[in-house]
Amino acid sequence: MTAWRQLRSALARLLGMTTRETDDSRMQEEMSWHLEQRTAQFAAQGLSDTEARRRAGVAFGARAAHQEAAREQLRSPWADHILRDLRYALRTLSRTPFVTTVAVLSLALGIGASSAIFSLFDEVLLRPLPVRDPGRLVNLSAPGPKPGYASCGEAGDCNITFSYRMFRDLEQRQTAFSDLAGHFPFSASVNFQNQSLTGDAVLVSGSYFPTLGVNPALGRLLSESDDRSIGTNFVAVLSYAYWQSHLGGDQTVLGKRILVNGRAMTIIGVTEAGFGGTTLGVEPLVYVPITMQGLLVPNGEDFEDRRDYWVYLFARLKPGVTLQQAGVGLNGLYHSILNDVEVPLQQGMSDATLAQFREKKITLESGSRGQSWMHQQTSAPFRLLFGVTGVVLLIACANIANLLLARGAGRALEMGLRVALGSSRARLITQLLVESLALACLGGLASLLVAKWTLTGIASLIPPDTSGGLAFTLQPAVLVFTAALTLGTGVVFGLFPAWHCTRGDLVTTIRANAGHIPGARAAARFRSSLVTLQISLATALLIAAGLFMKSLRNVARVDLGMHVDSVVTFQLSPEQAGYDDARAATYYPRVEEALAGIPGVTSLTTSAVPILAGRNRGRPVYTAGFSTAPDVDRGADYNLVGTSYFSTFGVRLVAGREFTEADHRGAPRVGIVNQAFVKKFGMTTGAVGKFFSDPPDTASIQIVGVVPDVKYSDVKRTVRAVFYLPWRQRPDVPSMSFYLRTARPEAVQRTIDGVVRKIDPGVPVEGLKTLAQQVRDNVYLDRMISILSTAFAVLATLLAAVGLYGVLAYAVAQRTREIGVRMALGAGAGRVRVMVLRQVGGMLVIGGLIGLAGAALFGKVAGSLLFGLEGTDPAVFALSLAVLALVALAAGYLPALRASRIDPIKALRYE
């Protein structure tokens, strides 16, 4: 029974319905007795009753103030006051464990979610590179016409790449920067003392490390003397992380050989600890001179061709030079090179395009965070999620403010007595704020655990090959943010309750006898306003979650044009192990034969461009009868594939045949095109048998088959014109992705690595997964946004429901006598329930309308993140409102039911 009484008392305190504690009752009796004595003394002097009471209150208050002032002189300094208030606050919170637990849990969820998203926000969009004075770094880009070829990757899209010759011209002649550097990330197989590892490497200019101001942890770093000539600088710098994790921090590695994509390089140094390159998402194992690109990157780019764009550039501003000044000076040089050197090289351009080419400008932007496509791709989603968690926290704060207001109403006597004893209002507000801050600090500590769990969950939603470089840990900046947010919320949700609980007349409050408390109506309006705000915010979040969930459903229903279930995929890169084209051409058939012998494998095929992995290759196509005029789009994507490619994926040809082993080198060139290709190039009378060519290979290719528009690189992207060529007819043999159809995917996955290693243990299996998983990874951002926004919306709705329940329950408790009178006069239980639910309806209508407006605005802002629907989808809006209405009515029905069961006789005795 004791436990039950404690629980009942805690619940009553949560709803703000407690009466005076025993010591409060004694204090009230004592103070009332003293006031009555003073009043009697003034009445004996012939004063009226009203005047006697007024003078008694003034005299008693003056006396108490004098005594309090005397005691203040003997009290300890300000810090001791705060410590005493803190001890009192902790005792107060411990007396109501249920209330404290609910409040701490609400704050922990709100602050923890915000801290987790801020951790990603900080890591991806805010945190500068760990280099010398990163604020002086500048990224260069050259948007505009780029006739020729462009290659880009994790460091950014092709708009920001430069040709190698342009990079060297700018490096030698620019005067705006102290240094200008180039780099290009690439995949590499690294072998040191027969220990192989596949990962990332970076081609860098000799000015790369000096521009960044990075120092070596061992040996020396690359310098300008290491990239003076093409293909002659066989030196490498190890990353500190690779040196520590795989080489054990061996101090004797300098001068030893390391194989990078089969090329022997001499180790000359190790980067300093904490430096992981300039591209988020890329964790380099080694850094090699950019002039070695032709030897280390299969089918690499051209050094001399000014129409081949592949180098990423960044620079360091000279002291005293602004970004605008640097831009003016650099573009003068850039335009000179464009017009004098590159314009004469352009062919097939219209006058309008050539004019745009002449007017191209180099744009400069801050390079403090390096260069990475993740900055651009994740900026909008992370900002959106950060705002969503802020809304959840705001709803949690509103709940705590309502709770403190309800508790404050029960402490009106305590506040009145403290004022009577001479405490100033500022002193009381300080004490109450200390209590709210103590509550916030408890919530802030618990939020660290919530944030860690949230980050772990987010990490599971991001593919491993995409999350490279992301720590998913609580860094110092995140801890500072959490502390600031904790203190801020403590002040926000505690300030109004503290201000409200310390107002009112001294004598009226002491003599209130649990009756009317000054400011109760204002507090009730404020509490109702807070709940209405919670409903509006929850409405907006529910609609946002609904939009993202429907968008994800649309993505999941996209017709890929193929069957991806029961298919296992992986990649092999024999050229990274030193294979030339001739060896690779014989290696792949051996692997295919061995894989076909695995029990359960029913068919297999290969492709140079992995399916639905976000990669693509394209080039211009020439066909008979199609215009070759300037600016005509002749581009098409392409893929090099193996035999049985389409049958392995269950794709039926529209016309013609598939590739066979007879389509080998030396046989007539053949190709297969999709229906988008047929439509684009006007082959309406039948494409099979017609010819096309793909420069620089000008040999005619005969179309032997037409296939449906099968998805190529992205699930959500509309299929463009695509042509397929048999890899066996190519003189150059690239890396290959393998696809095995089987009824036993898990068993086959466990077998593949051993089968491949038996052929050559030096060629590692990369990216082993099911094709269905690869498809999910392709849309991971959509899935992450949908799951997180839904989780936060559900949390916000539950918090809003708790707030609504608390306000209604408190209102019912405050109106107990009124409800009793109504029922005594004949009001039925149903009418009482309607009266309470009418209040729910009012808040729901107002909050819902505000939420709809906010959701409509959100839909416009987030429209680019949605797939297959508008940001104002009426079905989503209607369903979200219906869900919220049901939750709100459920939260309001319990107080309404309790109100309808009030005993009129007991209610009339309530006060």
Structure description:
- With 911 residues, the chain is of the alpha+beta class.
- The protein folds into three domains: 79-105 and 378-552 and 782-908, no CATH class; 134-368, no CATH class; 574-762, no CATH class.
- Helix content is 52%, strand content 15%.
- The longest helix has 38 residues, at 373-410.
- The two termini are 26 Å apart.
Distance, first to last CA: 26 Å
Helix amount: 40-55%
Estimate what percentage of residues fall within beta strands. Answer: 15-25%
Give the mean pLDDT: 83
Please outline the major beta sheet.
8 strands, mixed
Q: How many structural domains are formed by the residues?
A: 3
Using the CA coordinates, give the radius of gyration. 37 Å
The chain-level structural class is alpha+beta
Low-confidence regions: 1-27, 72-76, 512-518
> What overall geometry do the principal axes of the alpha carbons give?
elongated
Number of strands: 24
Oligomer: single chain
Nutshell version of this structure?
By secondary structure, the chain is α+β, with helices and mostly antiparallel strands.
Present the secondary structure layout.
Elements: H1 2-14, H2 22-44, H3 49-74, H4 78-95, H5 97-126, E1 137-141, E2 149-150, E3 161-163, H6 164-173, E4 177-192, E5 195-204, H7 208-212, E6 216-219, E7 235-238, H8 240-247, E8 257-260, E9 263-271, E10 284-289, H9 293-296, E11 308-317, H10 323-342, H11 351-358, E12 363-366, H12 373-410, H13 412-420, H14 425-461, H15 476-501, H16 506-510, H17 520-556, E13 567-572, H18 581-596, E14 601-607, E15 618-620, E16 622-623, E17 635-641, H19 645-648, E18 655-656, E19 670-674, H20 675-680, E20 691-694, E21 697-707, E22 722-726, E23 736-742, H21 745-759, E24 766-770, H22 771-778, H23 780-814, H24 816-824, H25 829-861, H26 874-900, H27 904-908
Parallel strand pairs: 2-11, 5-10, 7-9, 17-22, 19-21
Antiparallel strand pairs: 1-11, 1-12, 3-11, 4-5, 4-8, 4-11, 6-9, 7-10, 8-9, 13-23, 13-24, 14-23, 15-17, 16-20, 18-21, 19-22, 20-21
